Predict the 3D structure of the following.
Amino acid sequence: MIRLEFHDPSGRIEVKQPHAPRLPSLAGRRVGLVSNDQWQAHRMLPLLKSLLEADFPGIQVLPVDAFPQGNAVIGSEDTAARVKASGVDAVIVGNAA
Amino acid sequence: MTNAVAGLGLAPDAAMVTFPIEAFLPGSDISTVRARRGEFYDGLTRWRSALAGDGAGDLPMIVVEAPSAEAALARANHLMLASRWGDGLPLWPPTRERVDWILEGSAQPRERRLGTFPPRGGVTTVESCAIALAMAGGRPEYLGVLVAAVEAFLDPASGSESLQAASGSAFPVVIVNGPIGAEIRLNAGFGCLGPDPQRPAGASIGRALRLLQQNQGGALPGLGTMASYGGLRYTNVVVAEDEAALPAGWAPHGTERHGAAPGTDSISLAFASGATNIRRRGAGKETPAQDALEGMHRMADFMRVPNMPGLVGYEHGTPGILLLPGVVAKTMAGLGWTKATMRDFFWEHSRISVEQLRRAGAPAWIEIDASAVTRESLSRDPWPITARPENFIIVIAGGGHPTNSYWLQGYSPAVVGRPVERPPALDRLLAAAERDLGPRQSR
């Protein structure tokens, strides 16, 4: 019997931080929308805002233009700081294709 | 997306709601968002990562067994394809023996960390490069060029993090300068972007880089990379500049772009999204000057397109890489042309009228670009395809024949250079290559 033993080429992954904890409920929460302004985000994210507001009492969903929009800016530290400063409990980011 | 999440140092999964591509097209039916809104709500409340642990520790070796050597090789290849580690062509299993042999070509310790391969974030070391090179059929003397190319690729300025996943089918182009190119059998002449049994280094190095992009970086078609076509991705492009054919006074690319001392070994990495052969030579009884000028116009005409992916390199990158055969460079130099005057010509004659840009909807892309220089370029009519002439790359390479030149259309936020380190064992390795592959032949 011929035995071939060889390296796994995929490389290990480092997990440095946990995902953000989830909320127990969306009622009464403040939610942000961060948009790359591509792939129909200008339609889908406002629709989500209206759905969230209809489904959860007391929820506040910030408008899609509350934060800078576009692929060139949404990944920046400045945008992250603005999101944090806004006091939102959760964020929906879209759209990727 | 899971690649991108992993690349940020999070567990490689995420709370996502996915739709067929049709939902993202103009005028799409987005009622599915309403129908599936519960998935969005769950993502914010009930979702939990299914992947635990910190990912630390060495990966276990893979083992296959079979009754014969051929069957074991076939089984290993099948396993690598099933594991999504291959490219569809036969692979050498990266055994300890083969990887250790490749590492004889390293100037650095095998455990030296080069970074994490975007977007997935696979931890990449010199040994990772050796594993990929072993799989790609490489030899130890190629390793220094591959390591330098990986270092350039992992430089955040290269744009690799987004280009790995983007739909525009970007592929890395690695230009090698210095004596190392000819020594390790990189092709700079006839068929330099294609297969060559006597000069196979470019294919192996480029294939190894692609395997790293896929296996460490997660760039699997339709999963980790949305490249619509993926052309030139089996081997990428790894080519040496034909420095022996540089006319007097013409500097090598590595010197012009990166300040490398002439005669030193270096690589230069940029991304391209396409390749076009240009019929440069005239067909009549042109004078040398007329033939040169008409050829220059024809090349500029190929460049004069609203290449929106190229906008990422408008300010600091390149609109593209022109490969010009040495015999043409010699003629051009005899007529007084230099690389610099050719770049000036291309910059001037590849401009596009703003009316033509508007017809093609190009201003919408230019107006949303992150670079103020790019956004403000719309005030210029005709619009230059790049911010400055120096951004054009001209490399002397290709067969000694005057008819054609080659244009690799840029998709590159930057052009990143790195020195190539010579391993202590290089002379011995080159002598072994002479034995294994036969004597190096001049073109």
Q: What stands out?
A: The first helix of chain A runs from residue 41 to 55.
